[in-house]
Amino acid sequence: MDRGAVVRILVVGGAISTFLGGCSSGSEGDAQPSPPAATTTQESVLPTGFDGCSLPQSVIDAEELRNPKKDDRWTTGRNKWLGCGWIQRGGYNASITVSTITMQQIKANPEVVIREESQIAGRPTIIHYKPAQDGLSCEINVEMKNGSMEISIGNRPNREKSGHRHPCDIAKDLANMLAPTIQAGS
């Protein structure tokens, strides 16, 4: 048998298999379409109404933020992020994103210490960190539809501009500047 005949058999066989695989038997034996294999869940839909790569110029200037780099961890895992990483020259680094992480997930996470629960711009907010990173990194999540705005701060005590500040304080200050810019209903 020549190669072309083998390819045609495989293509026809695959088409038949796909057709039959898309059906299941109904209660009376009639062919019925199968439900889709994958459906969109809330966990796969990122919040909208905020862009961590397009910060207000007043915030960029006040914090001396530079070099935005895409922080796109839209992965096959449960939680996803999309935004940008920023640096303060001689200071901290920040990842400012929207995330599918919810307030309930943070509260249920045994690997984090919740430093503070409050509201910023009328939205529930949680400041948290991992115990091994206390004083070096901190995250704040501000509730949004389908998840949250997440600000993650890395700061070392030897940083000239920001070393004297706790990363959780920096995260809270940024959240106070950015949360009011989240679109209503988001």
From TrEMBL:
InterPro entries: DUF3558. Residues 24-45 are annotated as: Disordered. It holds the Pfam family DUF3558. This is DUF3558 domain-containing protein.
